[in-house]
Amino acid sequence: MDSQAPAPAQHPKYAWPEKPRLIGTRVSRIDGPLKVTGRAKYSYDILRPGMLYGRIVRSPHAHARLKSIDATAAEKAPGVKALLITIKPGDKVLYPGQEIGALAAATEQQAADALRLIKVEWDVLPALATVEQSMRPEAPQVFTPANTRRGTAQEDGNLDTGFAAAAHTVEGTYSTQVQTHTSLETHGCICEWNGENLTAWVSTQAVHGTREGFAAGLKIPQANVRVITEFMGGGFGSKFGPDIQGLLCARVAKAAGAPVKMMLDRKEEHLTTGNRPSAFARVRAGVAADGKLTAFDAQTWGTGGAGAGSDYPLPYIYTFPNRRRTHTDVYINSGQQRAMRAPGHPQGCFVTEVLMDELADRVRMDPMEFRLKNLPPLAPNAMWAKYFPMGAERINWKSRHVTGDPTPGPIKRGLGCSANRWGGAGQGARAHCEIGSDGSVVMRCGTQDIGTGNRTIMAMVVAETLGLEVNQVTIELGDSNQPFAPGSGGSTTAAAVMPAMRVTAGKARDALFERIAPQLGVPVDQISMGVGTVLVSLSTRDPLSDAQSAARSGQAPSSRSISWRDACRLLGTIPVSVDGQWERGLSAGGTSGVQFADVEVDIETGITKVRKIVCVQDCGLIVDAKTAETQCYGGIISGLNYAVFEERILDRNTANMVNPNMEWYHMAGQSDIPEIDVVLVDQPERGVIGIGEPPAVATAAAVANAIRNATGVTLRSIPITPDRLLTELERAGGTN
Amino acid sequence: MDIPKPASPLVNEHHCSNLRHKGMYVMSVPDPDEFKFYDRYDATHYWCTCTQKALGPDGLSVHPTTCQHGGERGCCE
């Protein structure tokens, strides 16, 4: 395998500028006006001539065996052009909403009406709705080879020695809920065939990966498939291929001989397009009298749904020298998990960070000082020891009281903190750049902007490299016909694509200089880039001496400048056209960050109001401070939802989701969003690192610890909803 | 020429060639320091490229331990 250390160790030809003009500044999204005016066309907005509307036939049951299916009436229903059934009698379904067919009709209503005409008889089987049901010895065996998959114990050090050294221990069971992705744009696509060639407009995080998926699933050549994602409304890890709805859409489009749009509705999203697995941890941990962690012993489990895993990193970040952990995947009859914004990290962070506050109380230490005592050594990819004091200053940590707000009255204030880490190193992107004789610059790259601002930072890097303004660069992305770029996941896009932008634009600049040098009558090494100009050293003959241009530029007498447009005009009819790709030394991996929460809890209603979140976060070289900040905002709001709002709730008898909408599946509204104070730490020497995921990791733990600090009760389970908080307060006998 | 590869343990000669996960499409660079901060874990979501979901053509869940040549599943390629 081709691997590299995360930190750049070389000095590449197209190194990042030491004194950048644009990089690191605050640039608004170049596609912002298109989005706020509705001119940006998402997959959901695509309309094709003669387009039909597709719907998927789904199982209403969590676990059932098909007895019979009759689609005759649906096939004859008004407007229906194609119908496909993919299940046969005797087959089983394992989760509600499982796909068993699809149809396409002239209108959405006709498609919905036809769905209801399909007569299906099921033999409904016992379903497993909870991990407790699945783990019972008497549970029916639903999954093959078993309802659980037990992992191998991980051990380091000596647990007996560790607990012998402990002055105090904490034991408890911690848990996190299932959270669904809830992307604003649902999954889906529009499929259009032209003979044996398929064009698909897909809401995806990987246009090239989705092309490969369509080709493999449909058994057609990849060369016959084109995938387009010009704008995309979020995926958070759940959109990495055509998905089953993509294959069904393509098949019914082929059968109907017409383009078909098949975008899922919100219920389908909650049921079938992925989720963050639940996590449970039965933990015993020890701490020495001096505040050093000594031992950690955990049994963990969780569910990723029907046959899918649920593992997560534990303990998280802090150094337990003696530890043991065994994880068990537990399967239930629900839709399967998918990668979701920092897979596993929020779970591990929550369990560890709540435990850390409990241990800190045992040794009567300030929780932040306790953390500082147990962190890994300071390093470029492990900066927590520096960031905790920075965040403490911003949140006014010195105002923190000991656990349990002593203030009279029902409103209690509290502060909490936590830490996160992530990788964020990418590679492999390729690009193509053209510079026209009219000065236009087009950069093409088959990456995708999944809502992160990728398009904007690409334009910034190209503009920086060519001495132009951002609006002088045209970025074309989101098309599998463009040069290859990897899927957007793992926060790797910026680190994969920005080096490709820098290198390709740099090569285009060099090619431009090579082309115009003979016409300028100077060696190519006497040409350099200015801002909106090309600079020519006057140390040699200059047949195209341009007094007017020199006067405009105000350059030193040792050189003269030619405007960008005049320089490009020398290209004549043939543009500069170059390919480039990611190169080492311009990007890295390994980020660290901390977050602090300031909360207010009404102990009479159980309602938590998060007043403020402080986020100290690095991401290597910051390309656009504004889009980097917005990534932090999004991640923190996601973490806030995880802490106090979001939860997939299944009926314990049927395993059907009882809140598959955006009314009862709670998420923060505008008034729930706290003040968010983002401190970005620039590390230009490391190169570009992604920032999409790390800010989402630590928020829930910081909020939970702040609630604990406010109320004096330890909530080892999220979401911390009013009913749960009141229950715990009641159990603890109220607060002081 | 430097041609990076996905940092993916799949697909190798033992696994079904239709087994997929996100890491096969995202070209991340492994951080050699990562496991200084926690132990190894596997949060991977797997799917079958034939069905484009987490269940294979035989209706059973897909996973590297079961999607292997010579195993009991007849759908592996």
Please, could you describe this protein's structure?
The complex is a heterodimer of chains A (736) and B (77). Chain A has 736 residues and is of the alpha+beta class. Chain A has three domains: 43-126 and 187-263, Aldehyde Oxidoreductase, domain 3; 275-424 and 588-731, Aldehyde Oxidoreductase, domain 4, CATH 3.30.365.10; 426-581, Aldehyde Oxidoreductase, domain 4, CATH 3.30.365.10. Chain A has 18 helices and 29 strands. In chain A, a hairpin with a 3-residue loop joins strand 23 and strand 24. Chain A is globular. Chain B is largely without helices or strands and 77 residues long. In chain B, 0% of the residues lie in helices and 8% in strands. Classes of the chains: A alpha+beta (736), B little secondary structure (77).
Topology:
The complex is a heterodimer of chains A (736) and B (77).
Chain A: H1 32-36, E1 52-58, E2 64-70, H2 72-75, E3 80-85, E4 92-93, E5 99-105, H3 108-116, E6 119-124, H4 131-135, E7 148-150, E8 154-156, H5 159-164, E9 168-176, E10 179-180, E11 188-194, E12 197-202, H6 207-218, E13 225-228, H7 243-256, E14 260-263, H8 266-272, E15 275-276, E16 279-287, E17 293-303, E18 322-330, H9 345-362, H10 367-373, H11 384-395, E19 411-422, E20 430-435, E21 441-445, H12 454-466, E22 473-477, H13 493-520, E23 527-529, E24 533-537, H14 547-553, E25 559-563, H15 564-569, E26 576-581, E27 591-602, E28 607-618, H16 625-644, E29 675-681, H17 699-711, H18 722-731
Helix pairs in contact in A: 6-7, 9-17, 12-13, 16-17
Chain B: E1 19-21, E2 46-48
Antiparallel strand pairs in B: 1-2
